[in-house]
């Protein structure tokens, strides 16, 4: 309880308080009430709705791709011999535990205009692409890099869920003529749905907190095309000396994530099956 109070409750109350002030890193703070929030939603800060849209677009693309790909890979791993399945799970999980900053810098070297990817394209006669200098390609590059980094976690969790399915249920479904995709969607997925729901909630939360990828890979550019809420929060607090506005951004993000999480929990009875 002491740790919870010191590291969770007090910082939350402090950040909410700071969000009501014009609070520089050095100097005297000034109480401004809800002016920081008004500035955001009134359009006085022209970048706010852009970074909000970028964050939502990234979260949608990343979450959908992550869940689809990780579920497919997990289902494939389940049908491999146990030894190969374990080795591949370790390989997929390695990027998860490696430093995000180092991974992003390596991907930046790969995707630069004169990087490895464009050199490979040139070697086969294909045109080079501005991976990090085109708004749409930059967002796509950020999603791909994030997938490479984060797929392993969901793969391990979903594989564990699949391994927990009673083999007799699968054998009975085969005897009843359920094979291939039909067996997956009518038998496997309903049993796997609690694990899939957990992965969905955690992936959405992680996607909205994205920071290292735009910070190291694209610097939020070109323009504001890959700037996200957490990156804008960091810049306002530590580059622009606006701790009050940064705290307000943090609380807006907190409310968005809480509402999305509550929405997911409110809808889980429609498709999550806990009776299996």
Automatic annotation (TrEMBL):
GO terms for biological process: transmembrane transport. The keyword Transmembrane applies. Keywords: Cell membrane, Membrane, Transmembrane, Transmembrane helix, Transport. It is a multi-pass membrane protein. The keyword Cell membrane applies. Signal peptide: none annotated. Its main location: membrane. The chain crosses the membrane at residues 5-26, 46-69, 90-110, 137-163, 184-208, 243-263. Residues 52-264 form the ABC transmembrane type-1 domain. It is found in: Cell membrane. This is Sugar ABC transporter permease.
């Amino acid at each position: 309880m002491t740790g919870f109070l010191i590291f969770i409750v007090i910082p939350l109350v402090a950040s909410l308080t700071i969000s009501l002030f014009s609070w520089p890193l050095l100097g005297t703070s000034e109480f401004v009430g809800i002016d920081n929030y008004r500035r955001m939603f009134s359009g006085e800060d022209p970048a706010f709705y852009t970074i909000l849209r970028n964050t939502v677009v990234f979260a949608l693309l990343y979450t959908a791709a992550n869940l689809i790909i990780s579920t497919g890979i997990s289902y494939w791993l389940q049908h491999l011999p146990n030894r190969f399945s374990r080795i591949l799970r370790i390989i997929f999980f390695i990027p998860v535990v490696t430093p995000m900053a180092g991974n992003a810098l390596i991907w930046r070297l790969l995707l630069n205009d004169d990087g490895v990817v464009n050199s490979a394209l040139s070697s086969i006669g294909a045109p080079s692409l501005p991976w990090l200098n085109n708004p749409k390609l930059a967002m796509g590059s950020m999603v791909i890099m994030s997938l490479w980094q984060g797929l392993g976690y969901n793969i391990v969790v979903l594989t564990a869920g699949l391994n927990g399915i009673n083999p007799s249920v699968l054998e009975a479904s085969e005897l009843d003529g359920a094979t291939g995709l039909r067996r997956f969607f009518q038998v496997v997925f309903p049993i796997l749905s609690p694990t899939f729901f957990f992965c969905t909630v955690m992936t959405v939360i992680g996607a909205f907190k994205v920071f290292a990828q735009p910070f190291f890979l694209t610097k939020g550019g070109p323009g504001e095309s890959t700037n996200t809420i957490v990156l804008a929060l960091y810049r306002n607090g530590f580059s622009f000396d606006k701790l009050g506005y940064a705290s307000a951004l943090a609380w807006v993000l907190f409310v968005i994530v809480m509402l999305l999480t509550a929405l997911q929990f409110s809808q889980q009875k429609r498709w999550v099956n806990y009776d299996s």
